[in-house]
Specification:
Blueprint lengths: L5 E4 L7 H7 L2 E5 L1 H10 L1 H13 L2 E2 L4 H9 L3 H15 L2 E3 L2 H16 L9 H4 E3 L8 E4 L5 H12 L7 H7 L2 H31 L5 H33 L4 H12 L4 H10 L1 H15 L8 H15 L2 E4 L2 H10 L2 H4 L3 E4 H13 L1
Parallel strand pairs: 2-3, 2-7, 7-8
Antiparallel strand pairs: 1-6, 4-5
């Protein structure tokens, strides 16, 4: 029988003290247009950002959509300038991929489904180093490697600055190939989203004409979908690990009898614990209610920025007026999370002046 390969995580949880420290700082999330604008056109704001990082316990973490949009820029000098600034202001810290954050939320939310107290995940769990933004990274060694040697080698790799650098990725990833891949993904997104919205039009037209009631109904439907298709399967999987397949149905029946089948109050309680998922519900409900608006590829990145930045940062700065309007007027998730949503470079200047004072 062939021996199994040895797999060791590059960044072990007990060694993530720098990420834990980053989670305690004031986190300012910038969408890609803001990054590009200040890197290319506003050195005064850049200097303010640098001072905030040096003296005001502030950090500007990046994310996968932020990195992807840098790679998508066709101008190599612009890519280099933006990536360098990202490294400087983020200090190599990134938010995890939105889907991974949502799965963390789902794992925590199952406690509420079981009738336990409301919980939420700490920011140290949603932050990581740049290289980990799409998932945890591990090194695999041949079976003949000594475990201690493999561990020591992995620790050396973990110290390399390249793993915390957007600039290194921009310089070494196959940019042309990545841009083609991203373009295809965005095209697929547009087609799927347009089809989903078109399919929902008859249902939308059959709802009440009152805009507020209609939005609430659409939001409720999105939230119920998340509970049934994301949270419940995740809770069942977690229960399976504990009680096994033979007892799972009896346990689920006992839980339902104890805590009930759920109501609107329970749903609100669950949603407070899963802000990334709930923000996605709000945005999807908004897109459905505005079905005449043309779906754009950029929408994908805008949504990915919002559902992470406006849920887990202290400040979210966006250049998208429609998104700003949604997050400040029709959606309470950011304010409930203590996140200030600001518009454009002007909004960024406002928060930097406040921090400096």
């Amino acid at each position: 029988m062939e021996s199994e390969k040895l797999s060791i995580p590059v960044f072990r949880d007990e060694e993530r003290t720098a990420v834990v420290a980053a989670a305690k700082k004031q986190l300012v999330y910038l969408d890609s247009n803001i990054w590009i604008h200040i890197a290319e056109q506003d050195q005064e704001v850049v200097e303010q950002c640098r001072r905030a990082v040096r003296t005001c316990n502030t950090l500007f973490p990046v994310s996968d959509p932020a990195v992807a949009e840098v790679i998508d820029q066709p101008n190599s000098l612009q890519r280099s300038r933006v990536a360098t600034l990202m490294d400087e202001l983020s200090e190599g810290v990134s938010f995890r991929f939105a889907r991974d954050i949502q799965m963390l939320e789902a794992d925590q939310a199952h406690n509420i489904l079981l009738g336990n107290a409301e919980v939420s995940i700490g920011r140290e769990l949603v932050l990581c180093w740049v290289v980990e933004r799409l998932g945890r990274v591990a090194l695999e060694f041949p079976p003949n490697w000594n475990r201690e040697d493999a561990k020591n080698f992995t620790e050396l790799v973990a110290q390399q600055s390249q793993l915390r650098s957007v600039k290194w990725l921009v310089d070494h990833l196959p940019d042309d190939e990545m841009r083609v891949r991203h373009a295809k993904s965005l095209c697929d997104y547009v087609q799927k989203m347009a089809a989903t919205i078109a399919k929902s039009v008859p249902h939308f037209q059959g709802l009440v004409k009152d805009k507020d009631k209609r939005r609430k109904r659409l939001l409720l439907e999105e939230r119920v979908w998340v509970v049934k298709n994301v949270l419940a399967p995740r809770a069942t999987r977690n229960l399976l690990k504990v009680v096994g397949p033979d007892r799972i149905m009896n346990v689920i029946a006992a839980i339902a009898e104890q805590v009930g089948e759920g109501n609107e109050q329970r749903l609100e309680q669950i949603m407070r614990a899963i802000p990334c998922l709930d923000l996605q519900c709000h945005i999807m409900a908004e897109r459905t209610s505005n079905h005449t608006r043309r779906v754009r590829g950029q929408d994908y990145y805008d949504v990915e920025h919002a559902i992470v930045g406006a849920a887990y940062a202290d400040v979210f700065v966006t250049s998208d007026r429609h998104l700003y309007d949604l997050l400040t007027r029709r959606c309470k998730v950011p304010i409930a999370r203590g996140c200030q949503v600001l518009l454009g470079v002007g909004g960024l200047r406002t928060v930097l002046n406040y921090v400096a004072s």
